[in-house]
């Protein structure tokens, strides 16, 4: 038997409409969940520059902006696309099952 990765129920998928974001706890880690361009994305809710929470940051062009110093991270990969951040943010998996949105470790 393999260990199942920790999985957290966000709630009904339609409770997070396009353009909205929230944060949930996955195995003790705060994870940002974003609905952008018809997709759900999940990333660790900490900027890799100075650990500032990403929740509430502007989302556009598939990227979330850290409000502290303006680093941008790609939602699909977690890669840092704008300085001052250089390290990627940890990516999580999103799944919709029977209308419920879940986030789990990859
Ligand atoms: S803490 Fe995010 S850019 Fe500095």
What does this protein structure show overall?
By secondary structure, the chain is mainly beta. It has one domain: Rieske [2Fe-2S] iron-sulphur domain (Rieske Iron-sulfur Protein). It is 0% helix and 44% strand. The chain is built from no helices and 9 strands. It has strands spanning 7-12, 21-26, 29-36, 39-44, 59-60, 63-65, 72-74, 91-97, 100-105. The strands form 2 sheets. The chain has a 6-stranded antiparallel beta sheet, with no helix packed on it. It has a 3-stranded antiparallel beta sheet with strand order 5-6-7, with no helix packed on it. Strand 5 and strand 6 form a beta hairpin. The protein is globular. It starts with 6 loop residues before the first strand and ends with a strand. The structure holds FE2/S2 (inorganic) cluster. The site of FE2/S2 (inorganic) cluster (FES) has 11 residues, from loops.
Shape: globular
How are strands sequenced across the largest beta sheet? 1-9-8-4-3-2
Sheet of most strands: 6 strands, antiparallel
What is the H level of CATH, i.e. the homologous superfamily? Rieske [2Fe-2S] iron-sulphur domain
What is the CATH class name?
Mainly Beta
- Rg calculated over all Cα atoms: 13 Å
Q: Which series of helices and strands comes N to C?
A: EEEEEEEEE
Q: What count of domains describes the coordinates?
A: 1
What small molecules are bound in this structure? Answer: FE2/S2 (inorganic) cluster
Here the CATH topology equals Rieske Iron-sulfur Protein
CATH architectural label = 3-layer Sandwich
GO molecular function, one term: 2 iron, 2 sulfur cluster binding
Keywords: 2Fe-2S, Iron, Iron-sulfur, Metal-binding
Pfam families: Rieske (PF00355)
Domain Rieske: 8-103
């Amino acid at each position: 038997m393999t260990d199942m990765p920790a999985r957290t129920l966000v709630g009904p998928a339609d409770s997070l409409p396009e353009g909205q974001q929230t944060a949930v706890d996955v195995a003790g880690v705060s994870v940002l969940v974003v609905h952008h361009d018809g997709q759900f994305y999940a990333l660790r809710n900490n900027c890799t520059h100075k650990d500032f929470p990403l929740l509430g940051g502007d989302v556009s062009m598939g990227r979330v902006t850290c409000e502290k110093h303006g680093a941008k991270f790609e939602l699909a990969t977690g890669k840092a696309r704008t300085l001052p951040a250089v390290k990627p943010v940890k990516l999580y998996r999103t799944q919709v099952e029977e209308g419920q949105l879940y986030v789990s470790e990859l």
